[in-house]
Amino acid sequence: MAMNSIPTAEQIARVPKVLLHDHLDGGLRPQTIIDIAQEIGYTSLPTHNADELATWFRESCDSGSLVRYLETFSHTIAVMQRREDIIRVARECALDLARDGVVYAEVRGAPELFTEQGLTMSDVVDATIEGYRLGMADAAAEGLTISVFSLLCGMRQNTKSQEVAELVVKYRGKGVVGFDIAGPEDGFPPSDQKESFDYLRKEDAHYTIHAGEAYGIPSIWEAIQICGAERLGHGVRIIDDIDFSGPEPRLGQLASYVRDRRIPLELCPTSNLQTGAAKSYAEHPIGALARLRFRVTLNTDNRLMSQTSMSLEMREAVKAFNWDLAELQRITINAMKSAFISYPDRLKIIDNVIKPGYAKIASE
């Protein structure tokens, strides 16, 4: 097949994938939640059947409300309070991603959420990194290659961001590649954490900011122009600054700036459908933004809550926008170019893994 051919579901399963926006506490296996809940005596789960639990998460998150969506995390956070449980979840995360064809992933988590039973935030980071290490080894034993790194989140409604930012610097080169702020956007602007972003910049540390998901253009503007975000977590609402009423789309000032500067958009379509940012995959702004050559990347956000995977996101995008193999490769290289590892390491994965992987499928 040629690079301009539409790939089959089976080919999509095998293409190399890069994932920049995935939450560790949003990607647990349902059976793992049940296992740990039984071990620790957590009795609040709605069901102890793994298939039913998966469906419950998905349906709870299909409400169209970001607030309701975020509430489902109380269960996953409850089973991630012991060192061994964090290691297990991180280990399974790395293996699950590798089995889906992901060759590079940055998975994020907020250390403060997992300190309810006495772990320190450093303990949480250590356990997470150890889990990824073991998961990468498990993947290698299955003949799969994946690199998984950690992004540490501060919660925008809380006051721990500076401590988390300092952990990013402390663990740089040891499995952590950057910082993020997560949590409810509306009412908690990124500029509330400006001191932490200033600190990270002074330390030459990388960071992305959740912006333009539930809240619009002002959130994106603040994230970039006040806080200096290198990437936008979601950023989907940049579409609000583009006028599609005439024969040609006209970009507003901020949209032009984002495109001109090649600021990566960590777009998560299935998640956005659940929280009400778009009505259907075909209407999701990722199609228009990709056509307009923004630095678009495709992501899962929360694999459990959305019952999704990188393969599923790619299949839906191919179906909705008629993306061919070349477009999938472009989106994948966009993501790899935007990763928080060193430039030579990014090039190695692009030249030695991604391009050969796509070329192999194109030659079939």
Report on the structure:
The chain has helices at 9-14, 30-40, 50-61, 66-71, 73-78, 83-99, 121-141, 161-170, 194-202, 217-226, 253-260, 269-275, 286-291, 303-306, 310-321, 325-337, 343-362; strands at residues 17-23, 102-109, 147-155, 176-182, 208-211, 231-234, 242-243, 250-251, 265-267, 296-298. The chain has 364 residues and is of the alpha/beta class. It has one domain (9-355): TIM Barrel. A four-stranded parallel β-sheet has the order 1-2-3-4, sandwiched between helices. Helix 6 (83-99) runs parallel beside helix 7 (121-141) and helix 8 (161-170) runs parallel beside helix 9. 49% of the residues are buried. Belongs to the metallo-dependent hydrolases superfamily. Adenosine and AMP deaminases family. GO terms for molecular function: adenosine deaminase activity; metal ion binding. InterPro entries: A_deaminase_dom, Ado/ade_deaminase, Metal_Hydrolase.
